[in-house]
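Make up an example, fold above all:
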Amino acid sequence: MSLVRRIARPMLAAMFVVGGLDQLKHPGAKAKAARPVLDQAPRVGLPDDPELLVRANGVAMVGGGALLATGHVPRLASTVLAGTLVPTTLAAHPFWNESDPQARAKQKIQFLKNLGLLGGLLLAAVDTDGKPSLAWRARRVGESAQRTVHTTKREARHAAKAARREARLKAAQAQNALS
């Protein structure tokens, strides 16, 4: 792992670990903020208890943050954290609902901060740590298989051509022996 990744991953993860622990310890205020978002969200089989959902989000944040910080499954951890950040941002920083210009500006800054964190998480989610991605490896296997097929066909053509030549030579030798 490079030095930049070793430093940057814990820095990115710290906000989620701290925020997740806060959600676990004090879900009440966040549950109030989450209620309007939950009311607007389509029902996908989630419980109707905002405190439980806030705590579950906190667990995901702490777990994903710890995994990202330690460099264990960082792509999966970043994806999980990105998933936790979207509802958190929508519930906690709805600047478009603020009428007071100062409060609106403050919420907008927090919203944009979270948007920047989301960008960092998306970059971390696609970072292969200098190793080829699965898609690249799959393409290479496919290309290798195509080269093998092409080479095998070419060698078969050469072998068939050599066999025909050898057969003509043997036939000519047989004919000369009879004459």
In short: The longest helix spans residues 134-178. The chain has two domains: 3-126, 132-179. The two ends are 79 Å apart (CA to CA). The chain is about 85% helix and 0% strand.
